[in-house]
Structures are given as structure tokens and as C-alpha cells.
Amino acid sequence: MSSRNRRNSLLTVLSLVLILSFALSGCATQAPAAPTAAPAAPEPTAAPAAPEPTAVPAAPEPTAVPEPTSKYNEAPMLAELVKAGTLPPVDERLPEEPYVIEVPEVGKYGGTWHRGFTGPSDRNGLIRIVNDGLVRFSIDGASVEMKYAKSVTPNDTFTEWTITLPKGGKWSDGELFTADDLMFYYNDVVNNKDLTPSMPSWLLNKDGTPVKVEKVDDLTVKFTFATPQTLFLQEIAQQDAGDKKYPMFLPAHYLKQFHANYAAKADLDKMIADAGVKTWGELFYLKQDQFDNPDRPVLTAWKAKNRYSEQIFIMERNPYYFGVDQAGNQLPYLDTVEVKFFADKAALNLAAIAGELDEQERHIDLANYPVLKEEEQKSGKYKIFLWSSTGGEEAGIVFNLTYAKDPELTAMWSQLDFRKAVSYAINRPEIQQAIFLGTGEPRMGIIKAGSPWYPGDEVAHKYTEYKPDEANKLLDALGYTKRDAEDYRLLPSGKRVGFELSAVPALGAYVAVAELAVADLKKVGIWVDLQTRERDLHFQMRQANELQAEVWNQDSAGTMFSGSTKFDVRPGIYGNLTYGPLFKTWYDTNGKEGVEPPDGWKRIVELQDEAKSANPDRQAEIAKEIFTIWVDNLYDIGTVGLTAMDQGVAVVNAKLRNVPENLTKDWALRTPGNGKPETWFFAE
Asked: Given this model, what pLDDT does residue 19 score?
């Protein structure tokens, strides 16, 4: 196949979406009035007596100048600001070629979206709402569409990708959005050790050298890779501020005042002291956080009015948002988003059941589904949608293979047969019925059937049978035959055969799954110390290599080659779970520090690097191999998957329109952001 045909084929698969443009509408002009005929010359007359002075005629009424006709419509609250002279007309606020969204139903302006969250540690829930990317995933998650970018185009070999921004696009303060905002991120943020200790993996070539990023003109930036990069679109769709990362574009005109390369030292020192932080890097991170700093300009549909640490976090419409519907109405339709703090997800669920939240899927428990359905039919206040994922699992057990504080324990769970025993000891059908209402299926955390990446049922269901007798045989064969008075197996040192398991009471039924698993493991003599921890503390311990084992979900099966994938030990804290934090250190330091990974992990890393340059057929082969290695080595012991548990039970106000009933959900897709919330509106 020729390179050009290959390029076209890949472009089809990657689903590049062209931005639609509106035709200019002409303005009718009035025909000029017919000229008045000159009067005939008067007959000469005798000189009259001096006439009485004639009164000066009144000045004619001025002709009204017609108001200019706009190509676009805007929210009444913005129209009032334009009328008052405090905001430019909508035509001047939008790019020359806006981001056009074909909505199912043209909406109406106004209203507030009421939603809940559990505080600053729940920040990713806000990231999902605004879905702040140059491009974003489609509703079904199968393709990538343009958003803030006008186009993202590869060359024939996929070694160069050119991002073109729309002319006239503006930040929420009215300043132009240009290539300098991408270059500021690359030159002054990721290439500054005070802000970014190590270069993000997506900006590195296979050999570890940085990708070349250059400004072509005011609206164009080119990324040049040493080898083909076929996953660039999927990658940049996830380069927002998710997982507390820096987004790949920043308002340079605003943030330079907090950057050591641009600000006077005396000014910077004063701002550091006033903010109560120790370094300019900490100050810069605070100021660039769009949810913690209401003054920070944004491109998103809604902009923070206050800080997200407050009881009710409020975001108001951005008058400069790029998006319009097919009728020329500037988006968003909704004026405001109010996100209320709840001390725990139980209180949030009660609010959802009572109909107090207009759209909420995050933290909604599947266990409440029967109550929600009953109330849906009884009150008619809301509708319940069940959104499905690309695969994965709702809760799995992950062992830390680089845990350093107790080598004897680490050596125990580093044995594959020990992990097999743990897997066989778990009664998944019981978990499926008790926690997931019989939905989903017992499985490992890989992609679902029907995907070209699916390696087969034998892989998806391997080691998932409930076989306590087999678990006991494996543990006996490992030499753990001695038991204490409570019937727990003992190590040669006299310690119990077991581990500490950390679970977070958020997002999914992690604690409930863990409790049932702990009871099952006790039956085969494995002691488990279940620790329920607040999310931030759990993440801190994960990053510090202090967790022995954890319960978490697998939600990146459909995007395993991009973003914060959980099928790679090299991403940061959110991608690399507790598989082996020191494996990441080993890769980061080229083997000088950390722990050398086992062969299975090394092979996964090799395949990950190859996939980024491969065509779709080869990517499918690679995915199948990674999934097989993953399950064979039980790097993540899955329990139950393919349910709506993890942010898939959506409670939607009955009057809220354009919310997709069948939305593919996953973290990589930034659900519900891929459902285009800026197009949602309240019907009368």
C-alpha cells in the first residue's frame, strides 16, 4: 500500500472531523428615494413690500440607522451586556469559523445545572464536566472530534502533526488564543524543571529524546516525532488538566506574571508570600488551576466564579466560548453550573434520589438503582440512564511488586502462584449478585468482546472461577502450611500470610468488594488488613510506594495506548497504580535507580512503544498480546466488570434535553464531557 493510501486509511480510522462553517448572510439595502424634480422658474413680479420674516423651518427628523444584523445568536444575559457596552458583539467574540455542534434539538438559553461532588479531592469530576481539550472523544468513544482546534493533520508518514487554531478564537478575558499558548506550555512549563521534573511520556520519542515542537505561525504549531505516531489524536484528547497535570495549552498572557522566566523577582517573592507557599513553582500551579483561581482565563463553556474549596462551587457561562449549534446559537445553553459539596457519597445519593441534582453519574451507587427506578416512575422528576464502558472491571486487587518496607511480604505476593490462589479464592458470582445486582460478568480488567482488541473469552475469564480448594493447594505447595490459633497461614518468620489492602470509599464499590474478598481470603487462611482511606491520602501513599495492595477499577482498556493508561508502569500516579512504583523509577532513570521490572512488564512496555507507531491492524495484535500477558501474570486481579457501577448510573432531570441516553463512559473519554454538556438545556 502506498504511503498516501496508508495515510488516508489511518485518517479514516482515526476519524478526523472537519469543522463546519457558516455561510455569510447578506444584508438587504434600501433603495434610495427618487430625486425631486426642479421647480419651474417663477414669473417676474414687482418688488413687493418688505416681507414679514419667515420662521425658520424645523430641522428634519434624523433617519434611523438600522442595527447591524448578526450571523449568530447569544444568551439574553450576554445581549444585555453588549447593549450596555460592557461586552463586544457576539460576532466579535467568536472565531471566524466557530466550533459547530450539530445538536439533536436546538435548545433554549437559561437555567442552572445542579450537580454534586465530594470536595477538592474530587477535582477530576470537574475536569469531566468541562472536557477542556483541543479535541475530544465522540459520544460513542470510537472517534476523536475537533473542539478548540480547527484541524489536527498528519503528514503521509505520521511523523509530523500540525495543529491549526481557529482565527479569532479568544480566552474568556477576550485575549486571543494563539500558538504562543501551546508554545508557552512546551517551552516554559514542561521544559522547566521547577514545574515539570520529568518530560511527559507523550512528548518523548521511543529513544527518550524530546519531540520537536515548533511554532509555524500565529495559529499553527507542528509536532515532529522521530518515528510514526498514529495515536496523536487520542493522546491530545487527554492532555487537559486531568489527574492534576498541566493542560497542553495555557493562557500565556496571564500566567507569565507568575513565572520566574518573566516576572521580576521582587514581585514574585511578594506573591509567593501572599499565597502562603514556599516556591514560585507552587504559586504557578495554584494560579494556573482554573478551579482554584477564578481570575485565570479559560476556553471552557463555563468559567469558575469562586473556588472549588467552597460549599457550592459555581461556574458561569464563558461569553467567548467557541461553540455554536447548527442554527448559529452560541453555546452553552445553560447559564450556570452549581456543584454542591457533600461530605460523603451517601448524602450525595440521597440528594439524587430526591431529585435535587439535574445530572449526576459520578458517585451514584448501582445499589441505589432499584430505588431510583421506583422514584423515576413515581415522581417523574428524572430519568435513569445506564451508560456502558469500553470494558475493564469495576474493582480489582493490585499488589505492589516493589514494596520496600517488608521484603518477606513482597517476596510472597510476587509469586504468581500466590496471586493465583488469591484469585481462585474470591467468590465472584457472590460479589456480582450482592454488589452489582447480578449485572455485568465475572472477568479480568480487559476490553469487552466485540472490540478488535479482544483476545477471547479464555483470557477475559481466566482464573476467575471460584476454586477455594485449588487456592488451598497452591498455598500449601508454596510452603504456607503452618497456621495460628485463628487458622491463618504463617510465613517462616511467624508472620501471617497476608497483606494490608487499601480501599477508597468513592467512585465505585471498592470497600464493599474488598469486604467480601477479605471474607473469602480468610477461608483459605490469608489474613487481610482492610484499610479504608480518604482518596488524597491513598494517592499520596501510592506515589510514595507505601501501599501493599489496593482496590481500584480498570477504566482505560479502550484507550490503553494513550493518556494515563493503566496498562503501563511509566505514567504517573493515576496511570501506574500499585503495580510497582519503583518500576517507573527504573524507567525514569534508565535503570540507575528503582527496581528492574520482570520480563512480563518489560514486554508490555516494548509493545506500548511499538503501538504508538503501528497501524490499526498491528495495534489490535499488540493489544491482544498485552491483555494476555496482563491476565497470565495477574498484575491486576479482576472481580466483576461491564456494569454501570463506575459512573454509569446517570440521574437526569426529566426536563434536561440533549443528554445522550446511550453514552460510552470512561475516564479517558472524560464522561460526561464526551456527551457535550454545553448543548444540554431545560425544556419548558
From this structure: 31
Peptide bond into 166 cis (omega under 30): no
Band of the pLDDT at 68, cuts 50, 70, 90? Answer: low
Running DSSP on this structure, what letter comes out for residue 185?
A: I
Length of the chain, in residues: 684
In angstroms, rounded to a whole number, what is the distance separating the alpha carbons of residues 308 and 16? 35
More confident residue, 612 or 175: 175
Instruction: Please report which helix (H) or strand (E) contains residue 576, including its range.
Output: none
Cβ proximity of 242 and 564 under 8 Å: yes
Shortest CA distance to 344 belongs to which of 586, 507, 461, 130? Answer: 507
pLDDT at position 9, please?
45
DSSP string, 438-464: T-SEE--SSBPTTSTT---HHHHTTT-
Contact yes or no for 670/240 (Cβ under 8 A): yes
Q: Which of 14, 247, 42 is nearest to 142 (CA)?
A: 14
Distance CA 154, CA 554 (A): 31
pLDDT at 67: 54
- Listed in sequence order, the residues at least 6 apart from 566 whose beta carbon sits closer than 8 Å to its beta carbon are 554, 555, 556, 560, 575, 576, 577, 636
Distance (Å, whole) CA 629 – CA 13: 26
pLDDT digits (tens, 9 = 90+) for 634-662: 999 999 999 998 899 999 999 999 999 99
C-alpha closest to that of 240 among 678, 673, 613, 666? 673
Closest C-alpha among 351, 255, 277 to residue 312:
351
| Predicted TM-score of the model (pTM) | 0.82
Residue pLDDT, tens place only, 550-586:
999 998 899 999 988 999 999 877 777 899 999 999 9
Q: Please state the separation of Cα 625 from the chain's center in Å.
A: 27
CA angle 287, 292, 294 (to 5 degrees): 80
Cα gap 333→301, rounded to integer Å: 9
pLDDT digits (tens, 9 = 90+) for 524-557: 999 999 999 998 899 999 999 999 999 999 988 9
